[in-house]
Amino acid sequence: MSGGGTETLVGYEAATGGGDKKRDSLGTTGSPAHLIIKDLGEIHSRLLDHRPVIQGETRYFVKEFECTQLLTQSVDSNRGSRNEKRFIMTI
């Protein structure tokens, strides 16, 4: 601050000792509370976030459907060509 007087640290800066280290509301990054919150986030993502599983199941379903559809189309086209051959032979 200007004026040549002494500066007084207020609030956050005074609590952290001048702002040398960055702190959040839980303390430093390696604090036990921060690690527990991080672990809870990982547990939540593994147990309760089903998006990766659903996406995998959806990809599998689409792949199987496409394979079945291609197989059905090829069988239908073979039947059609056989019917054409029979029709030509009978004429």
From TrEMBL:
Gene Ontology annotations for the cellular component aspect, listed alphabetically: BLOC-1 complex; transport vesicle
Region called Disordered, residue ranges: 1-28
Pfam families hit by this protein: Muted
Family designation: Belongs to the BLOC1S5 family.
Protein name: Biogenesis of lysosome-related organelles complex 1 subunit 5
Species this protein is from: Equus asinus
